[in-house]
Design goal:
22% helix, SH3 type barrels, Nuclear Transport Factor 2, Chain: A, single chain
Length: 215
Amino acid sequence: MTFFVLLLAVPAQAQLAPLVPRDDGADDPSFVLFRARLVEAIARRDAETVLSFFAPEARLSFGGTDGGPAGVRQVWYENGRPRPDFWAELGSVVALGSIRDPQPPTPAYDDGEVLITAPYTFAGFPQELDAFEHVAVLGENVRVRSAPSLDSEVLTALTYTAVPSRGGGEWTPITLADGREGFISSAYVRSPIDYRIGFLKRSGRWSIVFFIAGD
């Protein structure tokens, strides 16, 4: 007698991890004041004031551009003024918390200097997860739908977590812990290697030392 074994396809479990918002910078009054001034300048679209916050050596890319305000103009300016996406990206990263580096890397920074990075989704991203294959869910009870449409079934809801993803447009496809595929509105997710900003306190003064994306 011949026996046939039927192998059922079982969805592989996806790796999810909590990614709760943090704002370490809120504990430093000098940083709170600096950030408030930056936020006000962004709201006013005050380019000259914003440029003054960038350190001369600030990185705007991983190569091929100048540093500091000159680099901002190279990367973000068009027809003599910042493009609209500059204000959108800068405003979004500054609004998403911050994480203080307990030991800034050497030799780039000296002892006693303080480095704070925003958003929290970059520096706080779980190291055990692949940053190229996951996104951070920004919010509480964010609905996961069966298709990229508001009319589709709600599969579940996620709160401040990192989930596997394979990119997307208005909707981001994600994989749930049980292996099911779903979609989240891209307004509620962020890639950990999207734009981030670094603030350095040197000799008692804060400045922006990088504003970059990618890896």
